[in-house]
Amino acid sequence: MGRRLPLGPAIERGPAVTITVDGRAVRAHAGETVAAALLAEGVLATRTTVGGAPRGVFCGMGVCFDCLAVIDGVPNTRTCMTYVRDGMDVRLQDGLTPAGS
Question: Which domains does the chain have, with CATH numbers?
């Protein structure tokens, strides 16, 4: 389970789904955000600024716009406000485009 909280009487997870992060299959759970899935995988930076500075989850509630990524081809999508779904394609963002573009 890596960095996810251990299951217990107060913690349940949704069914497992698979998302793709920069071409790599990643297990996530229905009901969690893309940000939560990335953090559980150890991905701290979801993008770099045009100047090259790394950015990632900061506020976790959609206010700061630091956790942007390209999700299903849509750049500048807030990962903390987007729930995972099976087959979702997530690309870390470099400036205004997917990383590696």
Answer: 16-96 (3.10.20.440)
What amino acid is encoded at 54 in this protein? Answer: P
- Tens of pLDDT, residue by residue over 26-48, are 999 999 999 999 999 999 999 99
Categorize the per-residue pLDDT at 76 as very low, low, confident or very high, splitting at 50, 70 and 90. very high
Contact 71, 93 (CB under 8 A): no
Q: Answer whether 31's CB lies under 8 Å from 68's CB.
A: no
First to last CA, the chain: 31
| pLDDT the model gives residue 100 | 66
Total number of residues shown for the chain? 101
